[in-house]
Amino acid sequence: MRLLLLLSALVGFAATQFGDCNPLKISGCPPDKGLTNSPYSVDFTKGTTDWASWTSIGTDSVLYTSQGAVLTINKKGEAPTIATNWYIFFGRVEVVMRAAPGTGIVSSVVLASDDGDEIDWEFLGGNNDEVQTNYFGKGNLTLYNRGGKTPVHDVQGTTHTYTIDWQMDQLTWSVDGNVVRTLKKEDALGGLNYPQTPMKLRIGSWAGGDPDNAPGTIAWAGGLTDYTKAPFTMYVEKVSVTNQNPAASYSYGDASGSWESIVLKKDDAAAAVGR
Ligand SMILES: *[C@@H]1O[C@H](CO)[C@@H](O)[C@H](O)[C@H]1NC(C)=O
């Protein structure tokens, strides 16, 4: 039951947050811009607004203060999110942050590809002592037990470091330097459901408990969002990203969705991975 609920929650999120051309369904999608200056890091607590790297969506504006990037839901309909303008092709992503409070409010850190590969951290505002982990391959939402739950003390009041180490053979999620979950490629449906295409980073919060959402989504999010208790704020202090295969752009060589099909373009010379 929980899995079905989770499914509808993610479908809801995907429908509002993704607008990319899916290369497994449409031919001729534009190439993805790659992160070339790796390792990359930004300290939002210094008031940095790195517009070359980030786009804000789902909100009128994001404030950058000494507490970091301030992602606030003030009222219904807001889903403040910052997303990178570039993609990485395997690598490491570290986010130093505090999650938003509020029943039905979901804070998330998501790596997502154009064909539906996804690696997630999710925090429910009604639970201050837990983070959830999840992954998807090729948009396959047929779930059985992909989600994980990890106890973490005071995710809303205390700054923690959440790291995704995304390698070709395995993926780990770590909190404050301690690995809390490992996924081996072969354990994701023999590798088929393993995230393996270039991904963008998206950090933000949304109201999973909005009364207009599907009942399953509201239940997964922990209940109805009470907007009279707003503002609900998530703080992102620092983000560090290592791109394991830096390139000017990535494109899908075929509709398999496998890492072998990804074509890297470095300057002018096109080259396949590992060559
Ligand atoms: C989707 O994943 C499930 C298991 O998680 C699997 O049984 C099913 O075959 C997959 N579908 C596709 C199209 O790969």
What would your notes on this structure say?
- The chain is mostly beta strands.
- It has a single domain, classed as Jelly Rolls.
- Helices cover 8% and strands 42% of the residues.
- The chain contains 2 helices and 19 strands.
- The chain has helices at 2-17, 215-220; strands at residues 32-33, 40-43, 54-57, 63-65, 68-73, 81-88, 91-98, 105-113, 118-124, 130-136, 148-151, 160-166, 170-175, 178-184, 199-207, 232-243, 249-252, 262-266, 269-272.
- It is globular and about 50 Å long.
- It starts with a helix and ends with a strand.
- Bound molecules: 2-acetamido-2-deoxy-beta-D-glucopyranose.
- Keywords: Cell wall biogenesis/degradation, Glycoprotein, Glycosidase, Glycosyltransferase, Hydrolase, Membrane, Signal, Transferase.
- Residues 15-236 form the GH16 domain.
- GO terms for molecular function: endochitinase activity; glycosyltransferase activity.
Low-confidence segments, given as residue ranges, are 1-18, 268-275
Main beta-sheet strand count, sense and barrel state: 8 strands, antiparallel
* Global mean pLDDT: 90
Strand content: 35-45%
Ligands, ions, cofactors? 2-acetamido-2-deoxy-beta-D-glucopyranose
CATH topology: Jelly Rolls
For the record, the CATH class is Mainly Beta
Structural class of the helix and strand makeup?
A: mainly beta
First and last CA, distance: 45 Å
User: What's the shape?
Assistant: globular
Going by CATH, the architecture would be Sandwich
